[in-house]
Amino acid sequence: MCKILIIEDNKDVNFMLYETLSEAGYKLCSAYTGIEGVHKIKNEEWDLILLDIMLPFKSGDAVLKEVREFSDVPVIIISAKDMVRTKIDLLKLGADDYITKPFDLEEVAARVETLLRRVRRQKEKEQIYTFKELALNGNAKRFYVMEEEVELTAKEYLIMELFLKNQDKIFTKAKLYETIWEEEYLGDDNTVKTHISNLRNKLKNANSREEYIETVWGLGYRLNKRL
pTM higher than 0.90 for the full model? Predict the structure, then answer.
């Protein structure tokens, strides 16, 4: 389920957007100031941001500028400002779309769906897989943590690729071994355990604040989705 953050200080507008997009099947969260919005963007993973311009404490354009320093998350601007120059400036600053108030809620939902679909198709074409601060480029065979490349062995890369392509799936040691090594699993856990341990160490060195691979006792391993 796609996660969308609404940064809008008008509670009525925020609620209408929240209700409409919830009914469309998205997971929503609201922020009411620019500072609160930036905090949420930095500390959680989002698929799309709906961003008002006239926000207290930190304006929407300042939020957009700061976010573009560390994230490529899709952003749709929602603003009462209808000047062409304003739209152009915000699009150049990194916005992906611009909707003028007052707006039709069905149009907002349609634009959200269109942008998410475009981003999804582009990622599939580029073979880019992301999770929290992790990113894997399937074409270039490169792996990144917090936008810094991390050198992996061939097997480590294949394990991370498998995890990132199947983010909700638990992999048993047997399944990992048979998928990555393409051999029958005969019960020796050491090979898989060693590679998982080495991966965890490299991920921890790249970002000590996060534990990306979770052990599900009695079952196997998966990506750790806990915040």
Answer: no
